[in-house]
Amino acid sequence: MNLQALCKRWQKLFRLQDWDITVEVMGVVAYHKLEVSRGWEAGVSNAHNVINSDRKKAEIFVSIDAPDKKTSLAHELVHILVNPLHLSAKSTLDCVPSKDVSDIMATHIEEGLELVVYAVSRALLSAESAEYK
Ligand SMILES: [Zn+2]
Fold first, then answer.
1. Closest alpha carbon to 117 in 57, 51, 43
2. In whole angstroms, what is the distance from residue 18 CA to residue 46 CA?
3. What is the pLDDT of residue 133?
4. Confidence tier at 132 by pLDDT (50, 70, 90)
5. How many domains is the chain built from?
6. Ligand 1 centroid – CA 52 distance (Å)
7. DSSP 27
8. On the CB side of 113, how many CA atoms lie within 13 Å of its CA?
9. What predicted TM-score, i.e. pTM, was given to this entire model?
């Protein structure tokens, strides 16, 4: 199953079927150029996403170098799933008067979100592999 088809399958599982989500596997040079143009830290992650919750549209970019593209897709798809929580946390941070405190809180929120995304994406992959044994 190719990544776009797998994405569709998992969208249904996560009740994200009304979202327009595209998955693009990119060559090393194009992926690096994308990271630089978007201001993302280059060379740290094998996949990225761009999420527009208002339009229910998202793009997932996976590097051809990603050792396990299915895992990368699962991870980025769960980011879309938890995006409302991310947006809510960002709005809450806007209410914090101290930038230093806000920055510290933002770091903790990002770390917490990554842990949740990691756990849920692992559970998805585990359930998926158990289903086909
Ligand atoms: Zn992540």
1. 51
2. 26
3. 57
4. low
5. 1
6. 16
7. -
8. 20
9. 0.92
